[in-house]
């Protein structure tokens, strides 16, 4: 470790305070967790604003918090471009997905996709895709934990045991939150974390702008002047300066890089509304109007946070001594931009707060992913596939809890094994799979009457298969010095992100499958039920504590 | 001709429901197409015409920063417009259909 930064004891203390507060909250709110609806959907009792804050907490992962500020500090405008895709994506969720999903489903994405199809095959497909996306996302979060530990606790990457112990402690805490608190406790952890994150970022932004007389142009000017050029890891000198303010530093090197960025942009904008752990959050509110309010709150908070990131990124380039060069070569790489800036501004204490927020972020996002993966396994696979819908809710929740422990153990093991691996492409893969396998299927099943079981299976498995295969054959996995397996070269597909190919392919496969497949049994009646329910909320799942509506009677006309 | 319809099929065929569906689709489809074109157009210009983005506007603030911030503004505006539209044109119809169905 080349440099000492802040005090690990202080960093740990602030984080320990966060853990203590959230544990108390989780124990308090979860005393009346009884039913499956409590465990998976927090009894559908959160308000729109509460859920909106929780969504922001879920969505602003360590990649968003540390990654975007770092990308702007080192690559300038291209990092900003990245954050815009993450924000605009929410309009897909707001306009096309959130309310209709909330009205149609119960706990999982599989509920909606299988509503008017043959249950077993479509649920199996939806669960497969949910588990793949959640596990890849989880792995990326846990691998990022290693870099954070190196930076914030000053445990070097060579100290496998030390980092392993910290990852195991984070994993054990996360399992505790999920087991004790279920969705309600997890949601409160997200809310507290989002609050801390936004307040911490706002403090730093005010501080950075205050140093420049609240003149954003002056801040940009200082970032430009302090960073004329930098030497990359390969020894090449990269010109920065005014180039920090225009697109192209990261993605503009070649025509291929430009197409790769287009592919990534498409996956970002269409992937968000297909991420299972985001979709599941819509079930924690009592009705579609509250789901809409959740997304509105989430859009505002996430948008404001990305505006903060813009200031923090350029602020780090301007104010951290050594600028972009030092940030890029610090332990943790460009992820260190926000922590280095915090140290520069507020010394050890602010660094301690920001470090604690970063750990809280990993903890909260991993908890959200774990509950989603365990819910999909227990609800879609165990209750509906294995028990054919005859499982008691108690047994279902028991299976969900056991799955959560298993997922937690896998996450810890993977986190330790994947430390320091280049797994950044896993987040891109999670978004690409969500955009390819999930979103086309969701849109077809909500808006296309003729869509059927064969179409759903083709778009889910087709999108999933194509995106995973293309990633394996991409330069992210082999054939380049930064690849996961640099010693081999089977990279026949040139793009790091498969979205540009796999998303249109999945839409196409869904349409072809539908035209080739047979009409499902009682398709018209099921479509009528789904559409009326989706648009009006009639028959949708109610908050617990309210009386369940009686089933609709058949009437003669 | 079928002589047996479910309640849902009967509601689905009603003019009131057709109006609700049409109001929803008339808003969300064009709006989705519009923001996707605006976003993808921006990404394309940023990738293939970065010089346009470099044109200075005020001090160090250039066209790229302004257009990027406009993406934020348009996202916030579309959100606000949709909330107003849904509150005024969608929710009352949906509520009226649902109330009658659940009171059945």
From TrEMBL, chain A:
Compartments (UniProt record): Cell membrane
Keyword line: Cell membrane, Membrane, Symport, Transmembrane, Transmembrane helix, Transport
Transmembrane domains' residue ranges: 12-30, 51-74, 80-101, 122-155, 161-180, 192-210, 261-283, 295-317, 349-378, 399-418, 424-447, 454-475, 495-516
Membrane topology: Multi-pass membrane protein
Pfam families registered for this protein in UniProt: SSF (PF00474)
Name of the protein this chain belongs to: Cation acetate symporter
Family: Belongs to the sodium:solute symporter (SSF) (TC 2.A.21) family.
Organism: Pseudonocardia adelaidensis
Family matches, as InterPro entries: Na/Glc_symporter_sf (IPR038377), Na/solute_symporter (IPR001734), Sodium:Solute_Symporter (IPR050277)
The keyword Cell inner membrane is annotated on this UniProt entry: no
Main location: membrane
UniProt-listed PANTHER family: CATION_ACETATE SYMPORTER ACTP (PTHR48086:SF6), SODIUM/PROLINE SYMPORTER-RELATED (PTHR48086)
Source species, domain of life: Bacteria
């Amino acid at each position: 470790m080349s440099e000492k930064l802040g005090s690990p004891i202080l960093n740990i203390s602030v984080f320990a305070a966060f853990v203590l507060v959230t544990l108390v909250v989780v124990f308090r709110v979860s005393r009346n967790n009884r039913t499956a609806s409590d465990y998976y959907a927090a009894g559908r009792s959160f308000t729109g604003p509460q859920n909106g804050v929780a969504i922001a907490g879920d969505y602003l992962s360590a990649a968003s918090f540390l990654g975007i500020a770092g990308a702007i500090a080192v690559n300038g405008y291209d990092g900003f471009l990245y954050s815009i895709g993450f924000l605009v994506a929410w309009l897909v969720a707001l306009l096309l997905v959130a309310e209709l999903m909330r009205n149609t489903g119960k706990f999982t994405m599989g509920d909606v996709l299988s509503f008017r199809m043959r249950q077993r095959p479509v649920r199996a497909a939806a669960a497969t895709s949910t588990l793949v996306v959640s596990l890849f996302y989880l792995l990326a979060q846990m691998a990022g934990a290693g870099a954070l530990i190196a930076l914030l606790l000053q445990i070097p990457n060579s100290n496998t045991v030390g980092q392993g112990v910290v990852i195991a402690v984070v994993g054990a805490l996360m399992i505790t939150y999920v087991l004790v608190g279920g969705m309600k406790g997890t949601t409160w952890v997200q809310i507290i974390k989002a609050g801390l994150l936004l307040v911490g970022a706002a403090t730093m932004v005010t501080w950075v702008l205050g140093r420049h007389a609240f003149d954003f142009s002056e801040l940009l000017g200082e970032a430009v002047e302090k960073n004329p050029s930098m030497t990359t890891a390969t020894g090449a000198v990269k010109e920065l300066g005014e180039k920090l303010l225009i697109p192209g530093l990261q993605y503009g090197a070649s025509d291929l890089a430009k197409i790769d960025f287009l592919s990534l942009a498409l996956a970002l904008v269409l992937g968000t509304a297909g991420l299972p752990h985001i979709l599941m959050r819509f079930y924690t509110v009592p009705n579609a109007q509250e789901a809409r309010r959740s997304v509105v709150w989430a859009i505002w908070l996430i948008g404001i946070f990305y505006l903060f990131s813009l200031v923090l990124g350029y602020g780090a380039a301007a104010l951290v001594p050594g600028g972009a060069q030092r940030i890029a070569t610090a332990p943790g790489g460009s992820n260190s931009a926000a922590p280095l800036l915090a140290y520069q501004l507020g010394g050890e204490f602010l660094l301690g707060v920001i470090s604690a927020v970063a750990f809280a972020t990993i903890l909260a996002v991993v908890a959200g992913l774990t509950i989603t993966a365990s819910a999909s396994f227990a609800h879609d696979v165990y209750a509906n596939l294995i028990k054919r819908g005859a499982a008691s809710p108690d047994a279902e929740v028991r299976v969900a809890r056991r799955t959560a422990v298993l997922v937690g153990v896998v996450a810890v093991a993977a986190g330790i094994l994947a430390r320091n691996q280049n797994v950044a492409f896993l987040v891109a893969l999670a978004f690409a799979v969500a955009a390819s396998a999930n979103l086309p299927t969701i849109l077809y099943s909500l808006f296309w009457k003729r869509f059927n079981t064969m179409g759903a299976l083709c778009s889910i498995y087709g999108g999933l298969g194509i995106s995973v295969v293309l990633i394996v054959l991409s330069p992210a996995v082999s054939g380049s010095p930064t690849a996961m397996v640099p010693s081999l070269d089977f990279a026949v597909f040139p793009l790091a992100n498969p979205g540009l190919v796999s998303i249109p392919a999945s839409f196409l496969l869904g349409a072809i499958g539908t035209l080739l497949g047979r009409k499902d049994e009682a398709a018209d009646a099921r479509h009528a039920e789904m559409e009326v329910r989706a648009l009006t909320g009639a028959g949708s799942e109610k908050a617990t504590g309210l009386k369940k509506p009686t089933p609709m009677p058949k009437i003669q006309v | 001709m079928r002589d047996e319809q479910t309640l849902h099929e009967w509601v689905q065929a009603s003019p009131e429901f057709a109006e609700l569906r049409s109001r929803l689709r008339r808003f969300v489809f064009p709006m989705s197409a519009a923001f996707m074109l605006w976003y993808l157009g921006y990404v394309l210009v940023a990738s293939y015409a970065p010089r346009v983005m470099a044109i200075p506007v005020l001090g160090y603030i250039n066209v790229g920063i302004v257009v990027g911030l406009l993406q934020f503004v348009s996202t916030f505006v579309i959100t606000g417009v949709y909330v107003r539209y849904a509150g005024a044109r969608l929710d009352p119809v949906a509520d009226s259909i649902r109330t009658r169905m659940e009171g059945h």
